[in-house]
Amino acid sequence: MALIISCVCHFALIILILLAAMCSFSGIILFLYCYDALDPNGNITVTFDILQWTSDGYVARVTIQNNYQYRHVDKPGWELGWTWAKNEVIWSMAGAIATQQGNCSSFKSQIPHTCRRDPLVVDLMPDAAPENKSGGCCHGGLIGAYAINPLKSFSFFEITVGNLESNTPGYKPLNLTLMAPGPGYTCGLLVDTNPTVWSVIGGRREEQTFRTWKSTCTYSSYLANRTPVCCVSLSTFYNPTITSCPECSCGCKRAEQNTTSCIREDYISTQSGFLSNPDIVKCTNHMCPLQVHWHFKNNYRDHWRVKLTISNYNYKRNYSDWNVLVQHPGFSQSVTTFSFNSTMLPTVGITDEVALFWGIEYYNRELSNANERQLGSVTTEILLKKDSKSFTLSNGWAFPRRIYFNGESCQMPLPDTFPMLPNGSSNRKTVHRYFILPFLIYLTFKTLVVWL
Ligand SMILES: *[C@@H]1O[C@H](CO)[C@@H](O)[C@H](O)[C@H]1NC(C)=O
Ligand SMILES: *[C@@H]1O[C@H](CO)[C@@H](O)[C@H](O)[C@H]1NC(C)=O
Ligand SMILES: *[C@@H]1O[C@H](CO)[C@@H](O)[C@H](O)[C@H]1NC(C)=O
Ligand SMILES: *[C@@H]1O[C@H](CO)[C@@H](O)[C@H](O)[C@H]1NC(C)=O
Ligand SMILES: *[C@@H]1O[C@H](CO)[C@@H](O)[C@H](O)[C@H]1NC(C)=O
Ligand SMILES: *[C@@H]1O[C@H](CO)[C@@H](O)[C@H](O)[C@H]1NC(C)=O
Ligand SMILES: *[C@@H]1O[C@H](CO)[C@@H](O)[C@H](O)[C@H]1NC(C)=O
Ligand SMILES: *[C@@H]1O[C@H](CO)[C@@H](O)[C@H](O)[C@H]1NC(C)=O
User: Ligand 5: distance of its center to the CA of 193 in Å?
Assistant: First the structure.
């Protein structure tokens, strides 16, 4: 019996490892749905809170809450759309606007803000007139990542909905769509949930909404149809060889010998037309718009020091509020980051620690574009305490397992190209711990042995 259980466990483990491997090569195996183990609860929640009934409809507050730890809504901001179940119109709106008024020709005395059956709503700019604002609005559609600033992780607006029968129960909008920005998000149906409660009079009384509808939207980079946007290169103080980004990490095009800039076609086809503009990136062997470089700089008695550099190869694109996520077992010890802001993220079911880095305001929160002379770049040194039990120079331990830029996974070099220790100190070839093939063979072998 024990033998059988052991066997089943090993097979389950093999399948798990295979799945994990497939997920990490999600660029190849696109049809496999891979949820992000580093942010398992990540989602954007859209909530319709009915605050008040009117003679022909209701007043609702719509909240877009970003629960993603390290994924934010970047320029040019979110676009929320839905389809009305009945003949609703939006009489007025505060904190956002519908992009089209639609056909309001059947209204005479009062003209609605929009009569479209499928309104598309966008945020206002911070300079909007005060009478058109509502609290928590008007950031030009930008929403921060939850782990970086929970106070900037949401956006809300108010709508006055009408043209329904009197004493209407209200009808849930259908087919919610969220562009944040561009495609990638899929929203579920709006469902009735417990009413939202908030406290008034200094917390001595609670008030609640009449009805609350919620929908959860999740991101899939497969749906966003992105080629990778970044790649990782590595170097060490003990080996002069630099492990560069894997060739064509972000897709290659045959370039003219004498051109200095390449035009990387973004495969995103959007209705808004914004992202269909080609990104012009500096020509490199990896063709990535962004590169993250991890340099193992010093090895002290109790500490080790890493230099982390993020380079922008885009000629026409700045990244404000960028963030970089690094998965590495060394972060279990105390970590000092000199020129970036950082935090550790909670992880469930992952043995390595995960650290999130972002820029410091007025210093390097903006990753500027490249020009003819230099790349845009931000850099920091990180001092990590040594854990004598785990710290090692061999087997690629000192290199990150995974790196994300703005929530998009970066292409890692293959483990057998990692910088090697000099021949004197170790005669073992560098083997990444995720180099699963030998492990699989070992497991299969072990399983067979146990079986026999
Ligand atoms: C969405 O995120 C919130 C906050 O992390 C979490 O409580 C909730 O369960 C998530 N919803 C789904 C459907 O994953
Ligand atoms: C606008 O709506 C009215 C009535 O709902 C309809 O008669 C008219 O044809 C519509 N106009 C257009 C341009 O669709
Ligand atoms: C405020 O909103 C009203 C109605 O939607 C609109 O007519 C007006 O132009 C807006 N004001 C500004 C400054 O945008
Ligand atoms: C909602 O979307 C589905 C699938 O795209 C479509 O079949 C359906 O007609 C839509 N419903 C409305 C009310 O537009
Ligand atoms: C590359 O150089 C050749 C000769 O120097 C020239 O004829 C050609 O136009 C150049 N191509 C581009 C894209 O500049
Ligand atoms: C990027 O930012 C720099 C500095 O703020 C600015 O000079 C440059 O014009 C910006 N470039 C783009 C493409 O927005
Ligand atoms: C680091 O980020 C936190 C949260 O966004 C912020 O409150 C703090 O001021 C930042 N620190 C620096 C030095 O920018
Ligand atoms: C290490 O040894 C290998 C073969 O054993 C050799 O090809 C390589 O050049 C040596 N590297 C150094 C830095 O001596």
Answer: 64
Q: What pLDDT is recorded for position 132?
A: 80
Q: For 30, phi and psi rounded to 5 degrees? A: -80, -35
Nearest residue by C-alpha to atom 4 in ligand 6: 368
Q: Whose CA is nearest to atom 8 of ligand 3?
A: 132
The closest-lying atom of ligand 5 relative to the alpha carbon of residue 257 is: 1
306: which 2 tokens? Answer: 């890493």
Which residues make up the CATH 2.60.40.290 domain(s) of the chain? Answer: 34-222, 228-448
CB burial string 268-306: b at 16+ within 10 A, e below? beeeeeebeeebbbbbbebbbbbbbbbbbbeeeeeebbb
pLDDT of residue 22: 42
Distance between CA atoms of 82 and 187, rounded to whole angstroms?
A: 10
| pLDDT of res. 442 | 53
- Note the pLDDT of residue 41: 87
State the pLDDT at residue 228.
86
Residues with CB under 6 A from ligand 5: 256, 258-259
Q: What architecture does CATH give domain 228-448? A: Sandwich (2.60)
pLDDT in tens, 132-145: 887 768 899 999 99
Better pLDDT: 387 or 23: 387
**Ligand found nearest the CA of 111:** 3
List, for residues 262-320, the tens digit of each pLDDT value.
Answer: 655 443 333 343 344 556 788 788 889 999 999 999 999 999 999 999 999 988 888 98
> Is there a contact between 52 and 148 (Cβ–Cβ < 8 Å)?
no
Q: Among 2.40.50.180, 2.40.37.10, 3.40.30.10, 2.60.40.290, name the CATH number for the domain at 34-222.
A: 2.60.40.290
More confident residue, 184 or 428: 184
What per-residue confidence (pLDDT) applies to 14? 44
Residue 17 has pLDDT above 70, yes or no: no
Question: Phi and psi at residue 157, in whole multiples of 5°?
Answer: -150, 165
Report d(CA 325, CA 355) in Å as an integer.
6
- pLDDT of 335 above 50: yes
User: What residues are paired with 61 via a beta bridge?
Assistant: 49, 158
All residues at 6 or more sequence positions from 25 whose CB lies less than 8 Å from its CB, including other chains: none
pTM of the model: 0.79
Q: Is 262 in the pocket of ligand 7 (CB under 6 A)?
A: no
d(CA 81, CA 78): 10
Mean pLDDT within 236-259:
78
174 CB near ligand 4 (under 6 Å): yes
